[in-house]
Amino acid sequence: MRPSLAEFSGTFGPVVAATVYATGCLSGAHLNPAVSLAFALTRHSPHRDLLPHGIAQLVGGVAAGPMLRLLFGPAASLGSRLPRGPVWQSIGLEGLRGSCFA
């Protein structure tokens, strides 16, 4: 039985939150460029740090692709989920989960 979108979202939301709490003291919780930009705009992080964080996140993301392919082979659907419900439901769930970090 495949988990529903709500079950899937309910699993990954707490995982991301735990990652932020566990590594926030080390990385400042700059998990993606949107977070870094939000921190810079709200003056929680100096503007001069925005470019280095963005470059590091881009390099890490690009390096992750070949590493995952090396580890797992050509598994196109590995870890992917397609929403079952309407588009508004997916957007609403993402907005709800994202607002937990604001």
Q: Could you explain the architecture of this structure?
A:
- With 102 residues, the chain is mainly α.
- The protein has four helices and no strands.
- The protein has one domain (5-99).
- Helix 1 (5-27) runs parallel beside helix 4 and helix 2 (33-41) packs antiparallel against helix 3 (50-72).
Give the end-to-end Cα distance, rounded to a whole number of Å: 34 Å
Instruction: Count helical runs.
Output: 4
Q: Tell me, rounded to a whole number, the average pLDDT.
A: 77
User: How many strand units?
Assistant: 0
Shape: globular
Helical content band: 55-70%
Q: How many discrete structural domains?
A: 1
Q: What series of H and E elements makes up the topology? A: HHHH
Radius of gyration: 16 Å
Strand coverage percent: under 5%
Question: Which regions contain 5 or more consecutive residues with pLDDT less than 50?
Answer: none
Q: Give the class from helix and strand content and strand pairing.
A: mainly alpha
Largest sheet at a glance? none
Describe the structure in brief:
This protein is mainly alpha-helical and about 100 residues long. It has helices at about 5-25, 35-40, 50-70, 85-100.
Name the features:
4 helices; 67% helix
Task: Provide the fold topology.
Blueprint: H1 5-27, H2 33-41, H3 50-72, H4 87-99
Helix pairs in contact: 1-4, 2-3
